[in-house]
Specification:
The two termini are 21 Å apart. The protein has a 4-stranded mixed beta sheet with strand order 1-2-4-3, with helices on one face. Strands 5-6-10-7 form a 4-stranded mixed beta sheet. It has a single domain, classed as Ribosomal Protein S5, domain 2 (2-Layer Sandwich), CATH 3.30.230. Helix 2 runs parallel beside helix 3. The protein is α+β, with helices and mostly antiparallel strands. The chain is globular. Its EC number is 4.2.1.19. GO terms for molecular function: imidazoleglycerol-phosphate dehydratase activity. Pfam families: IGPD.
Length: 195
Protein backbone atom coordinates (compact mmCIF):
# COMPACT_ATOMS: atom_id res chain seq x y z
CA UNK A 1 0.00 0.00 0.00
CA UNK A 2 1.28 3.46 -0.90
CA UNK A 3 1.30 5.50 2.29
CA UNK A 4 3.43 7.92 4.30
CA UNK A 5 3.28 9.69 7.63
CA UNK A 6 5.14 12.51 9.32
CA UNK A 7 5.47 14.43 12.55
CA UNK A 8 6.76 17.97 12.08
CA UNK A 9 7.21 20.53 14.82
CA UNK A 10 8.28 24.15 14.52
CA UNK A 11 7.86 27.22 16.71
CA UNK A 12 4.64 27.91 14.80
CA UNK A 13 2.99 24.54 14.24
CA UNK A 14 2.96 20.94 15.39
CA UNK A 15 1.66 18.60 12.69
CA UNK A 16 0.96 14.88 12.61
CA UNK A 17 -0.17 13.77 9.16
CA UNK A 18 -0.59 10.47 7.35
CA UNK A 19 -1.91 9.71 3.88
CA UNK A 20 -2.91 6.42 2.29
CA UNK A 21 -3.27 6.73 -1.46
CA UNK A 22 -5.03 3.37 -1.85
CA UNK A 23 -7.15 3.13 1.30
CA UNK A 24 -9.92 5.73 1.76
CA UNK A 25 -11.33 4.07 4.88
CA UNK A 26 -10.36 6.80 7.37
CA UNK A 27 -10.48 10.57 7.10
CA UNK A 28 -9.73 12.42 10.35
CA UNK A 29 -8.99 16.14 10.07
CA UNK A 30 -8.39 18.44 13.05
CA UNK A 31 -6.49 21.63 12.30
CA UNK A 32 -8.28 24.11 14.55
CA UNK A 33 -9.52 25.94 11.43
CA UNK A 34 -13.04 24.72 10.75
CA UNK A 35 -13.33 25.73 7.10
CA UNK A 36 -9.89 24.29 6.33
CA UNK A 37 -10.94 20.99 7.97
CA UNK A 38 -13.96 20.99 5.66
CA UNK A 39 -11.75 21.58 2.59
CA UNK A 40 -9.22 18.87 3.49
CA UNK A 41 -12.08 16.45 4.09
CA UNK A 42 -13.51 17.31 0.66
CA UNK A 43 -10.06 16.81 -0.92
CA UNK A 44 -9.66 13.38 0.72
CA UNK A 45 -13.20 12.13 0.07
CA UNK A 46 -13.24 13.14 -3.57
CA UNK A 47 -9.68 11.91 -4.10
CA UNK A 48 -10.60 8.68 -2.26
CA UNK A 49 -7.55 8.95 -0.03
CA UNK A 50 -7.16 7.98 3.59
CA UNK A 51 -6.02 11.12 5.37
CA UNK A 52 -5.30 11.94 8.99
CA UNK A 53 -4.26 15.49 9.89
CA UNK A 54 -3.81 16.82 13.43
CA UNK A 55 -2.43 20.32 13.80
CA UNK A 56 -1.68 22.58 16.75
CA UNK A 57 -0.92 25.98 15.29
CA UNK A 58 -0.43 29.56 16.44
CA UNK A 59 -4.04 30.47 15.75
CA UNK A 60 -3.82 33.32 18.25
CA UNK A 61 -1.89 35.07 15.45
CA UNK A 62 -3.90 33.88 12.45
CA UNK A 63 -4.40 30.74 10.34
CA UNK A 64 -1.51 31.36 7.91
CA UNK A 65 1.11 29.06 9.45
CA UNK A 66 -1.41 26.27 10.07
CA UNK A 67 -2.62 26.25 6.46
CA UNK A 68 0.74 26.72 4.76
CA UNK A 69 2.58 24.20 6.93
CA UNK A 70 -0.15 21.62 6.39
CA UNK A 71 0.32 22.10 2.63
CA UNK A 72 4.06 21.57 3.03
CA UNK A 73 3.68 18.34 5.01
CA UNK A 74 0.87 16.99 2.82
CA UNK A 75 2.94 17.63 -0.30
CA UNK A 76 5.98 15.88 1.17
CA UNK A 77 3.91 12.87 2.23
CA UNK A 78 2.25 12.52 -1.19
CA UNK A 79 5.69 12.59 -2.77
CA UNK A 80 6.99 9.99 -0.30
CA UNK A 81 3.94 7.74 -0.72
CA UNK A 82 4.40 7.72 -4.50
CA UNK A 83 7.90 6.27 -4.14
CA UNK A 84 9.58 5.70 -7.51
CA UNK A 85 6.33 6.62 -9.35
CA UNK A 86 6.52 3.51 -11.53
CA UNK A 87 3.31 2.78 -13.38
CA UNK A 88 1.44 5.94 -12.38
CA UNK A 89 -0.75 7.69 -14.95
CA UNK A 90 1.06 10.92 -13.97
CA UNK A 91 -1.45 13.46 -15.32
CA UNK A 92 -4.85 14.35 -13.91
CA UNK A 93 -7.49 16.94 -14.72
CA UNK A 94 -10.83 17.71 -13.12
CA UNK A 95 -13.61 20.25 -13.50
CA UNK A 96 -15.89 20.41 -10.47
CA UNK A 97 -19.14 22.39 -10.36
CA UNK A 98 -20.29 23.61 -6.95
CA UNK A 99 -23.65 25.29 -7.47
CA UNK A 100 -22.80 28.71 -8.98
CA UNK A 101 -19.04 28.02 -9.15
CA UNK A 102 -16.84 25.97 -11.43
CA UNK A 103 -13.37 24.93 -10.33
CA UNK A 104 -10.62 23.49 -12.53
CA UNK A 105 -7.41 21.67 -11.61
CA UNK A 106 -4.91 20.05 -13.95
CA UNK A 107 -1.68 18.55 -12.66
CA UNK A 108 1.40 16.61 -13.63
CA UNK A 109 3.38 14.55 -11.13
CA UNK A 110 6.51 15.60 -12.96
CA UNK A 111 9.02 16.26 -10.20
CA UNK A 112 9.05 19.88 -11.41
CA UNK A 113 7.15 22.05 -8.93
CA UNK A 114 5.10 24.86 -10.43
CA UNK A 115 1.85 26.61 -9.61
CA UNK A 116 -0.44 28.65 -11.81
CA UNK A 117 -3.37 29.86 -9.72
CA UNK A 118 -6.35 32.00 -10.68
CA UNK A 119 -9.05 32.70 -8.13
CA UNK A 120 -10.66 35.82 -6.75
CA UNK A 121 -12.64 35.58 -3.54
CA UNK A 122 -15.16 38.25 -2.56
CA UNK A 123 -14.99 37.42 1.14
CA UNK A 124 -11.66 37.82 2.96
CA UNK A 125 -12.49 35.28 5.67
CA UNK A 126 -14.67 32.22 6.17
CA UNK A 127 -14.80 31.58 9.89
CA UNK A 128 -11.17 31.81 11.05
CA UNK A 129 -9.86 30.93 7.57
CA UNK A 130 -8.28 33.69 5.47
CA UNK A 131 -9.32 33.09 1.86
CA UNK A 132 -6.01 34.38 0.49
CA UNK A 133 -4.50 31.23 2.04
CA UNK A 134 -6.07 29.03 -0.63
CA UNK A 135 -3.26 30.01 -2.98
CA UNK A 136 -0.68 29.60 -0.19
CA UNK A 137 -1.89 26.05 0.47
CA UNK A 138 -1.86 25.11 -3.21
CA UNK A 139 1.64 26.53 -3.64
CA UNK A 140 3.04 24.78 -0.56
CA UNK A 141 1.45 21.51 -1.63
CA UNK A 142 2.62 21.69 -5.26
CA UNK A 143 6.19 22.67 -4.46
CA UNK A 144 6.73 20.03 -1.79
CA UNK A 145 4.96 17.27 -3.74
CA UNK A 146 7.00 18.06 -6.87
CA UNK A 147 3.85 18.64 -8.90
CA UNK A 148 3.12 21.01 -11.75
CA UNK A 149 -0.28 22.35 -10.73
CA UNK A 150 -2.75 24.60 -12.54
CA UNK A 151 -5.78 25.68 -10.51
CA UNK A 152 -8.46 28.09 -11.60
CA UNK A 153 -11.88 29.28 -10.51
CA UNK A 154 -13.54 29.66 -13.89
CA UNK A 155 -16.50 31.54 -12.46
CA UNK A 156 -18.75 31.79 -9.44
CA UNK A 157 -20.27 34.13 -6.89
CA UNK A 158 -20.17 32.36 -3.54
CA UNK A 159 -16.69 32.30 -1.98
CA UNK A 160 -17.31 29.04 -0.11
CA UNK A 161 -18.46 27.32 -3.29
CA UNK A 162 -15.49 28.57 -5.33
CA UNK A 163 -12.93 27.34 -2.83
CA UNK A 164 -14.68 24.02 -2.26
CA UNK A 165 -14.81 23.41 -6.01
CA UNK A 166 -11.00 23.85 -6.14
CA UNK A 167 -10.29 21.45 -3.27
CA UNK A 168 -12.61 18.80 -4.70
CA UNK A 169 -11.02 19.23 -8.14
CA UNK A 170 -7.56 18.87 -6.58
CA UNK A 171 -8.58 15.58 -4.97
CA UNK A 172 -10.13 14.21 -8.14
CA UNK A 173 -7.22 15.26 -10.38
CA UNK A 174 -4.68 13.77 -7.97
CA UNK A 175 -6.67 10.51 -7.79
CA UNK A 176 -6.50 10.26 -11.58
CA UNK A 177 -2.77 11.00 -11.68
CA UNK A 178 -1.69 8.53 -8.98
CA UNK A 179 -3.58 5.58 -10.47
CA UNK A 180 -1.43 2.62 -11.44
CA UNK A 181 -1.78 1.56 -15.07
CA UNK A 182 -0.40 -1.97 -15.60
CA UNK A 183 0.34 -1.12 -19.23
CA UNK A 184 2.88 1.52 -18.21
CA UNK A 185 6.36 0.04 -18.00
CA UNK A 186 8.55 1.94 -15.55
CA UNK A 187 7.68 5.64 -15.42
CA UNK A 188 5.71 7.57 -18.02
CA UNK A 189 8.55 9.79 -19.18
CA UNK A 190 10.86 9.94 -22.20
CA UNK A 191 13.69 10.66 -19.74
CA UNK A 192 12.99 7.52 -17.77
CA UNK A 193 12.71 9.60 -14.56
CA UNK A 194 10.10 11.67 -12.80
CA UNK A 195 12.15 14.00 -10.62
Amino acid sequence: MRQASSKRETNETKIELSIRLDDPSEVDIQTGVGFFDHMLTAFARHGRFGLSVHVEGDLHIDSHHTVEDTGIVLGKMVREALGDKKGIVRFGTSYVPMDDALGFVSLDISGRPYLHFEGDFHLQTLGNFDTELVREFFQAFAFHAGITLHARVLYGVNTHHKIEALFKALGRALREAVKIDPEIQGVLSTKGLLE
